[in-house]
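quick one, 131 residues, struct below
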Amino acid sequence: MNALQLLKLINTQGFSPDLQEQVILTGDAELAYRFAHDLLESDLERLECIIATTKIPRIAYEFALIKASRGGNIEKLQALIIDAADGGLMILFAVDVVGADIDLFEESIRKLPEAKYLQLFEAEIRQKGFY
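---
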C-alpha cells in the first residue's frame, strides 16, 4: 500500500495497530508525522525511529512539537536538529518545543558561522521570557 492510500485509511478508519505497522513499514517520515499528528493512540517512540533515520530536520521539528506536547522525550530529535546545523530550526526548536535544552541550543548557535542566528536566538528567548 502506498502513502496516499494509507493517508486515506488514516482519515476514514482512524487508529489501528495494523495501520500503524503499515505506516512504519513504509519508512516514510512525512507519513509517520501525519500518523502521529492525527492519531493520539500512535506509538511515538516507534514512529520517531523513522523520523530519526530519514534525518529531515523540518519533520523532526514538527514531530518534536507533537511528542513534547504529549510528554515524550525529545532528546534524539533535539540532537538531530543540532546536528543539521540549521540556525533557523534551532531557534524554533529552542523556543517552541517544551523541554528543549535552551543552553545547548545557545551553545550550538554560537558555533554557527553566521552571527545573525545568535542575535535572532537572543531576541526570541527574551521575547518568550526565558532570560
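Residues 1-54 form one domain.
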